[in-house]
Amino acid sequence: MMVAAITSTMSFRFKQFFIEDSKCAMKVGTDGVLLGAWAPITNNQSPITNTPFRVLDIGTGSGLIARMLMQRCPEAEVEGIDIDKAAVEQACENGVCAFQAQLQNWKLEIGNYYDLIVSNPPYFQNSLKNPDAGRMTARHTDTLSYKDLMHHCTRLLQENGQLALILPADAETEVRGLAAAEKLSLTHVTRVYSKEGKAPKRVLLAFSHQLSAISFTEDILVLEDEKGGRSAAYSELTKDFYL
Questions:
Q1: 186, 216 contact by CB (below 8 A)
Q2: Does residue 132 register a pLDDT over 90?
Q3: Which terminus of the chain has a smaller tally of CB atoms within 10 A, N or C?
């Protein structure tokens, strides 16, 4: 499924911005668009500190998700990190404040926590490695396990901060267990189906960094209608981005 119009320079054109991904191992795709449109971001101010809402995009790649969140919350402070130098350069070219860093080593100034962390993380485990080193790093969990992801996101989140992820559907149980061990409360699950009647391929998960009882939402999203086009629900979710 195409995610945006493609120009002759391999830029992806959305309603309010362009994304160039020629330097990135992982290209613009539906997963990133889904997370950027779905992640819980509702205001421009941190509810805890009354300062600008702070967002971290882990494994930012081309900066697509970060740019979508910048559009949704224009006054937010959005940062991206990635271990790949070329991807960081590309994200910066695409208008994202990005840094070359590994999540495990990412440090904050005292008290400067994030209100929202998002990630479309590496997800292949114990599978055949891609001979392309950059693409292998971007796709495999060798450099960022789910356990490390959940632990360090908890470390970086503001009290009442939120974490939003897109993962393979078969990773849901493992990641929910790791989140519970870190005392992250699940607030929203959306299981993503390519078509009606198929098994889910992806799952969108949102967690809150708080211990008190919170509301929980569980739903599904089917991407294609019976004719193979975008479903009404998918079109509604992404209406502010797709041309």
A1: yes
A2: no
A3: C
Question: Which tens digits make up the pLDDT trace of 79-119?
Answer: 999 999 999 999 999 999 999 999 999 988 777 899 999 99
d(CA 64, CA 68): 6
Print burial letters for 90-120: b (CB count within 10 Å at least 16), e (below 16). Answer: bbeebebebeebebeeeeeeeeebbbbbbbb
Provide the token pair at 100.
């070359």
* 237 φ/ψ angles, rounded to the nearest 5 degrees: -60, -40
Listed in sequence order, the residues at least 6 apart from 127 whose beta carbon sits closer than 8 Å to its beta carbon are 140
> Do 60 and 36 touch, CB atoms closer than 8 A?
no
232: left (phi over 0), alpha (psi -120 to 50) or beta: alpha
Distance between CA atoms of 228 and 213, rounded to whole angstroms? 40
Contact between 211 and 184 (Cβ < 8 Å): no
